[in-house]
Design brief:
This protein has about 325 residues and is α+β, with helices and mostly antiparallel strands. It contains 12 helices and 10 strands. The structure holds glutamine.
């Protein structure tokens, strides 16, 4: 029985602050493992050994540990927000231009695009996010601005912003993303101008936010699509589907490992953040800049693994 003693049933009270402190200790035990992303030179300046984690409950309580208020480059975590906004504006039309299957390949891979005729596997690899950004740009006229506005509103933090140095660094070293975008355009799957779409993509990746901001901003996914102010962003079934895509594609070719270890939907970025959802209950964001070979934060994975294992809270 002692093994079960630390798990909780869905409705039991959990001492979140205590569990976060333990998760932070699990993260610290990975000290020195992994490397800070440097293929975007401005990202290499991130504080390698920082760690933070926050949890926002579905009804808006916020808990944090470590550097949970410190801002970092959200990078591919932004792909979650471009996706939900594009679905909110345009519904299922999006799925004509992007798939929803795991890619089993690195996030910046070009390889499947050729055999799959310029239709990216899913919205969470770079190729797919470029298509989603293109659609959001058509829908709103300002894709990066739409993501930033949404994050500011949902987090209640109007000072969130884009780091222009990171955006410029991405653009300057963005040969791979430019190759992906041009290849997609050659198949007629970009509606806008390639350079404009890429500029928006780089800008939303370069948004800076803290763990607390992202945990609050993702809360609608734990609330079946309902935003902080009670209005509906997504239909209940759409929110379910976004969570499903996060689970199977949110951490690229390590999504199987993430599901195995953590057992909840999660979206990572090369800035070292991972935003994860416990449907009906809470959202969690963990951050540590050192990445594993698949581009996911070593410390954030360890912390989320500890959280779901110690509490017994997962979708399984
Ligand atoms: N996995 C990531 O976070 C990658 C995002 C980064 N902006 C890129 O395009 O390479």
């Amino acid at each position: 029985m002692h093994l079960a003693a630390r798990s909780v049933r869905h409705n039991d009270a959990v001492d979140y602050q205590q569990i976060l402190a333990e998760a932070a200790a699990a993260a610290r035990a990975t000290a020195g493992q992994g490397r800070v992303a440097d293929y975007i030179p401005a990202l290499a300046k991130a504080p390698a050994d920082a760690f933070g984690m926050a949890l926002a409950t579905a009804d808006g309580e916020l808990y944090g540990v470590g550097d949970w208020e410190r801002r970092f480059s959200i990078q591919s975590v932004s792909k979650l927000f471009t996706l939900v906004l594009a679905i909110a504006h345009g519904g299922d039309e999006l799925w004509r231009g992007v798939g929803r299957e795991p890619s089993g390949n690195p996030f910046n891979s070009l390889i499947q695009l050729e055999t799959e005729h310029g239709i990216p596997r899913n919205p969470f690899i770079n190729a797919g996010a470029i298509v989603v950004t293109d659609r959001l740009l058509q829908q709103t006229g300002d894709a990066a601005g739409a993501v930033l506005d949404f994050l500011r509103t949902e987090s209640g933090n109007p000072s969130l912003d884009i780091d222009p140095e990171v955006a410029a660094s991405e653009a300057e070293h963005g040969h791979r993303n430019a190759a992906l975008a041009h290849f997609i355009a050659s198949h007629g799957n970009l509606l806008g101008d390639v350079d404009t779409v890429l500029a928006h993509y780089y800008r939303h990746c370069a948004i800076e936010a803290g763990c607390g901001d992202l945990a609050l901003a993702g809360r609608f996914l734990a609330r079946h699509g309902v935003r902080a102010d009670g209005s509906r962003l997504l239909q209940r079934s759409q929110a379910k589907r976004v969570n499903a895509i996060m689970l199977i594609c949110g951490t690229y070719d390590a999504a199987g490992e993430f599901a195995y270890r953590v057992g909840i939907p999660g979206k990572s970025g090369v800035g070292g953040g991972i935003l994860a959802v416990l449907p009906e209950r809470a959202t969690l964001c963990a951050w540590g800049p050192r990445l594993d070979a698949a581009g996911n934060s070593v410390a954030a994975m360890a912390a989320l693994d500890h959280f779901t294992t110690a509490t017994g809270l997962s979708i399984f």
